[in-house]
């Protein structure tokens, strides 16, 4: 296996642009610019790969052919309605099929590079469109690139793929696609569906017939900070991944759990997100010989948060983590200020937060986070042969 890291990138990925909309491609542009100025993309062993659009054969492994036809037609039909398109969440835009297929193709390229041993890790920060359903756009997502990439891995012979989603929103589309497939473990940590879109992701969602235990959901109460998030992550994710024994890890690394994100109510810091990426890499190293495919996802603090979070992700994937005290380069700050005048441009790669946490224990007076942990462990751990009450599991 090559020790290289592939970063799938081309400026054409910025064409996934819904206009005046929270999902603004400037967050991806600023991420790549920041990672470039900090030298992350020029590290030894980092290869930039230009993506090609996913063709219909790939897309229809997940999506209904009629839906693909609708995505193609909608920009040319001012009266078009249906398939979740033409809504405020998923407005129709020019080149919608082409740009969406390119995002999917980029994540497929990342997955193929890792599976074939051409790279140990691969990243597509423009990907992570995890809400798209087989025949419906949803949650700013047209084609579900993580699901398409996982389906491609299965076609290439993979037997056990783990998908871990740390976006603030439930990874509902990926879960739905693989609900009945015991070869794919989907794990999602997210804000409770009682408070946030898409309204799914409860602990008792554990997989379909023949695949029970392959859907794992950790819904967390509003206001959870780094300590609570990391406590929940480490109380659930390592155990279920070790029980499943994946050959490859796919992650969706949405940055919208941050306390500054305008669309959600968790209180993570960039430092806590960095700690999550380090934990994911360690699990890939432990369980998958390092095979890790990472995508972006949500994140709507376009200048203040996403570029720093995903630059940390790129650094963790490509080698040494960036020191949190690192200054953001002046050239990048000037670019960010020009792209989004009036936004506060961060001076350092840290929020000055300490991402320490106390490991979960099944004793004492439970907090709201502990109750969420206990509910998930009770629902899914026995299905995986694990003891929900044993902190060693």
UniProtKB/TrEMBL annotation:
<dbReference type="InterPro" id="IPR023696">
    <property type="entry name" value="Ureohydrolase_dom_sf"/>
</dbReference>
<feature type="domain" description="Histone deacetylase">
    <location>
        <begin position="21"/>
        <end position="315"/>
    </location>
</feature>
<comment type="pathway">
    <text>Ketone degradation; acetoin degradation.</text>
</comment>
<comment type="similarity">
    <text>Belongs to the histone deacetylase family.</text>
</comment>
<dbReference type="GO" id="GO:0040029">
    <property type="term" value="P:epigenetic regulation of gene expression"/>
</dbReference>
<dbReference type="InterPro" id="IPR037138">
    <property type="entry name" value="His_deacetylse_dom_sf"/>
</dbReference>
<protein>
    <recommendedName>
        <fullName>Acetoin utilization protein AcuC</fullName>
    </recommendedName>
</protein>
<dbReference type="GO" id="GO:0045150">
    <property type="term" value="P:acetoin catabolic process"/>
</dbReference>
<keyword id="KW-0006">Acetoin catabolism</keyword>
<dbReference type="GO" id="GO:0004407">
    <property type="term" value="F:histone deacetylase activity"/>
</dbReference>
<dbReference type="InterPro" id="IPR003085">
    <property type="entry name" value="AcuC"/>
</dbReference>
<dbReference type="GO" id="GO:0016787">
    <property type="term" value="F:hydrolase activity"/>
</dbReference>
<keyword id="KW-0378">Hydrolase</keyword>
<dbReference type="InterPro" id="IPR000286">
    <property type="entry name" value="HDACs"/>
</dbReference>
<dbReference type="InterPro" id="IPR003084">
    <property type="entry name" value="HDAC_I/II"/>
</dbReference>
<dbReference type="Pfam" id="PF00850">
    <property type="entry name" value="Hist_deacetyl"/>
</dbReference>
<dbReference type="InterPro" id="IPR023801">
    <property type="entry name" value="His_deacetylse_dom"/>
</dbReference>
């Amino acid at each position: 296996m090559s020790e290289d890291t592939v970063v799938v990138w081309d400026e054409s990925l910025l064409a996934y642009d819904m206009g005046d909309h929270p999902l603004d491609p400037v967050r991806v542009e600023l991420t790549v610019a920041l990672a470039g100025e900090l030298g992350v993309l020029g590290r030894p062993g980092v290869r930039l790969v230009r993506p090609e659009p996913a063709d219909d054969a790939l897309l229809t492994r997940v999506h209904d052919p009629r839906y693909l036809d609708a995505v193609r037609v909608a920009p040319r039909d001012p009266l078009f309605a249906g398939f979740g398109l033409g809504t405020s969440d998923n407005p129709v835009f020019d080149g919608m099929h082409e740009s969406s297929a390119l995002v999917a193709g980029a994540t497929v390229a990342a997955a193929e590079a890792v599976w074939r041993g051409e790279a140990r890790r691969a990243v597509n920060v423009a990907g992570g469109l995890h809400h798209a359903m087989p025949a419906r756009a949803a949650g700013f997502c047209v084609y579900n690139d993580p699901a398409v990439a996982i389906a491609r891995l299965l076609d290439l012979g993979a037997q056990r793929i783990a998908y871990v989603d740390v976006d603030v929103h439930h990874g509902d589309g990926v879960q739905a696609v693989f609900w009945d497939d015991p070869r794919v473990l989907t794990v999602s940590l997210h804000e409770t569906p009682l408070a946030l879109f898409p309204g799914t992701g409860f602990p008792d969602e554990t997989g379909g017939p023949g695949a029970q235990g392959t859907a794992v959901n950790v819904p967390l109460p509003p206001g959870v900070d780094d300590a609570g998030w990391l406590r929940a992550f480490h109380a659930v994710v390592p155990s279920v991944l070790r029980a499943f024994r994946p050959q490859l890890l796919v992650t969706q690394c949405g940055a919208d759990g941050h306390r500054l994100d305008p669309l959600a109510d968790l209180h993570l810091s960039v430092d806590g997100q960095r700690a999550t990426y380090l934990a994911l890499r360690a699990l890939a190293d432990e369980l998958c010989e390092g095979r890790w495919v990472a995508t972006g996802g949500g994140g709507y603090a376009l200048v203040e948060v996403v570029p720093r979070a995903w630059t940390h992700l790129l650094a963790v994937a490509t080698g040494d983590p960036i020191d949190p005290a690192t200054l953001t380069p002046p050239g990048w700050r000037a670019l960010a200020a020009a792209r989004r005048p009036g936004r506060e441009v961060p001076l350092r790669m840290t929020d000055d937060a300490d991402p320490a946490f106390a490991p979960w224990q099944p004793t004492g007076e439970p907090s709201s986070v502990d109750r969420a942990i206990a509910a998930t462990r009770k629902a899914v751990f026995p299905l995986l042969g694990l003891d929900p009450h044993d902190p060693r599991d």
